Amino acid sequence: MTAAPPIPDPSLELRAVAHSYARTPALRGVSLTLHPGEVVAVTGPSGCGKSTLLHAAAGLLTPQAGSVTLLGRDLARLDETERAVLRRREVGIVLQYGQLVPDLPLRDNVALPLLLDGGDLAAARTAAHDALARVGLADAAGAVPQEVSGGQAQRAAVARALLTSPRVLLADEPVASLDATGGRQVLDLLLDVARRDGGAVLLVTHDNTAAALADREVRLRDGAVEHEAVLR
Amino acid sequence: MTELHLALLLRGPAHGYEVKQAYDRWFPDAKPLAFGQVYATLGRLVRDGLAEVVETRSEGGPERTVYAVTDEGRERLRAWLAEPAPPAVAGTEDVVRKTVVALRTSAPGRAARAVALDQRTAHLRRMRELQARDPAADDVATRLAHRYAVLHLDADLRWLDEAVEALDSPTPEEPR
Ligand SMILES: Nc1ncnc2c1ncn2[C@@H]1O[C@H](COP(=O)(O)OP(=O)(O)OP(=O)(O)O)[C@@H](O)[C@H]1O
Ligand SMILES: [Mg+2]
């Protein structure tokens, strides 16, 4: 008799997560599991709760009900600092509406996770340069965010998310400002986190061609999962 | 066409002319249905046990045969709706047909929303296959041909999303 191969622990697990802003219910009991090596697309109409779900998954928001387990850690049991450290070291995050520090050149914006962790400045900058080169921004490393286009800023945010070779990547509309060819290049880099490095990728997108790159689609509607389908 | 005629009869027994009128209303952008085709199809449905003749009306004018869908016909329609249309560019009309029928008949035993969402999954799977190919392995023309298919599937998907949205907004009853 051969033992069944062990099922790897999920990289991310949301259980019955519910959250309201003031009087607006944004999530009404969403459960979702993301495994290592897997790419899950979260889709649904505008306002259905995609970003709220991603913020809860990242520990940027503490949901009013339900639990979030990220890389085996129950986020509710971690304090603010512990969550920030977990994010910085193990998680890559691309937020929907920019997250670059205005006065820092792209190079330093991208190097930030390493610098905040007390990394060596020169080494951090070298890593940042490599990451920027991968997203086609080698020449814009010295520019500050307001000197670059929306698409370039989005690429820089992706470079930063990829810098630390995250085990979990959470990306909210990461290619919304890019054209088809550029978007596909950036998506391929994000998907490499799962396909090449065995990490887990949560891709929030309203773009069907992007969603069709995932292994699974979770479709939200009015803060609840309306439909879930394996695409592979 | 078989299933469309069954769907049109699902609204209640009707004669050929009523079936044609309803078809032209359901699919306003399609070529209007020819009478000859309606009668031929209805005849075939009766022969195959999917519909039956329930009465012959004359109402002063020419005699008209009134048809109704049978249980077997309902089952046939249900099975057709449960199967997403082939996600191919040439299959577009079938996507429209199934979705419109699902909306109009609220799909016996199956929510119209489920029909649209299953179709969405079939389309995404096809899109995934088309995009999985290594672009470097294809020449420009092949790449563009795939891209054409992907973008047309995307157009279908956007239309399906609008169809799902529309399910939430009440619309006036269809005239009979
Ligand atoms: N900070 C906030 N304060 C109050 N309401 C909010 C806030 N953020 C989101 N909402 C509301 O919560 C609901 C879900 O918003 P969320 O941003 O998660 O949607 P989304 O699916 O990401 O939309 P989009 O596709 O437009 O980005 C919406 O009704 C939105 O108006
Ligand atoms: Mg959002």
Protein traits:
heterodimer; A: 232 residues; alpha/beta; Rossmann fold; six-stranded mixed β-sheet; 7 helices; 10 strands; 26% strand; globular; B: 176 residues; mainly alpha; Arc Repressor Mutant, subunit A; 3 strands; binds adenosine-5'-triphosphate; binds magnesium ion
* Computed CA radius of gyration of chain A, to the nearest angstrom: 17 Å
Tell me which protein chains meet in the greatest interface and how many residues each side has: A-B, 13 and 17 residues
What can be said about the biggest beta sheet of chain A?
A: 6 strands, mixed
CATH topology tier name of the largest domain in chain B:
Arc Repressor Mutant, subunit A
CATH topology of chain A: Rossmann fold
Could you give the count of β-strands of chain B?
A: 3
* Average of the residue pLDDT scores of chain A: 94
- Quaternary structure of the protein: heterodimer
* Biggest β-sheet: strands ordered side by side in the sheet of chain B: 1-3-2
Question: What are the secondary-structure elements of chain B, in order, as H or E?
Answer: HEHHEEHHHH
Helical segment count of chain B: 7
Please state the overall shape of chain B, judged from the principal axes of the Cα atoms: elongated
Structural class of chain A: alpha/beta
CATH superfamily of the largest domain in chain B: Winged helix-like DNA-binding domain superfamily/Winged helix DNA-binding domain
CATH class category label of the largest domain in chain B? Mainly Alpha
Helix content of chain B: 55-70%
Low-pLDDT windows of residues of chain A: none
How far the N terminus sits from the C terminus of chain A, by CA atoms, comes to 30 Å
Biggest sheet, spatial arrangement of strands of chain A: 6-7-8-3-9-10
The overall number of domains of chain B is 2
